[in-house]
Amino acid sequence: MDTKIAQRKSLFRSDAMQRVMAFGGLIALFVVFSLASPNFFSFSNVTGILLATAVNGVLALGVTFVIITAGIDLSVGTVMTFSAVMSAVFIIEWKLPIPIGVLGGVLAGALCGLINGVMIAKMKVPPFVATLGMLYATKGLSLVISTLKPIYFNDAPAFRTIAMGSILGAIFPGFDIPNAVVILFGAAIVASLILTKTVLGRYTFALGSNEEATRLSGVNADRWKMAVYTLCGAFAGMGGVLMASRLNSAQPALGSGYELDAIAAAVIGGTSLSGGEGTILGTIIGAFIISTLANGLRILSVPQEWQTVVTGTILVMAVYMDRRRRR
To answer: Could you give the C-alpha distances from 301 to 18, 38, 43, 306, in angstroms and in order?
Structure first.
């Protein structure tokens, strides 16, 4: 018994240490870029970093659940775009109220996630292949439904305030933090409660730790796996609504590449690609690391291609450190 307790404490310290290291890396980035450029730590630039993190952070929340189950979802970027297009169709073309259009966009993402879950859990299609297929399907559907053209929300000006309005600014004058940032932190709190306080969260970790043992213990593993992918799709739908609100339009060609940033945020934040480990706090820290890095390199006039190289290098290092820690 004492040995098991000691092992659990050691594992807890290891996980906590990884989150501390990620947070320390984020602080180090802020210090370095602040010294390199006096404009980096300005209120407007920090607000820009928060806003840039909002969409990627919401996508990363859903991806975290999937990766903890030892799965992968390559479709969150294009599902985000598909959800944005569907919200635009509901609100602009069908003239539905904005709350109904927003709910429709989130449900469109959840439906895509459910289809991913059915393919993976019931049809036994590998997650990589199933979600890659969904990536292409939703990318094509977005272009078909929108007839290859952006759909603008000019007839629904209140839609833009979902992401770009500022409830905090109305309460605290001068503290104009966009609503998208508030939504991100609200979604993170909900995701953390689901992961740590619900049956879905417990089975998410169980599936990633040992799916066969979970199945043999009488748990309907397929049903819970479908629930996890549906939840991931719902977060992607939420990201689509935020993106459409931020741009005041649904851009059907947007979305490719967002899945990589979301996966990178989760992995950098300590979610193990082997499954069974991960935290929402770590994912949020990882999302801020990516946004801060991109913003700082842009201020320093580093070319876009080199920004991608740096992000890729950090991702590989994070995976390597995770592998070493697990050994």
So the answer is: 31, 14, 20, 10
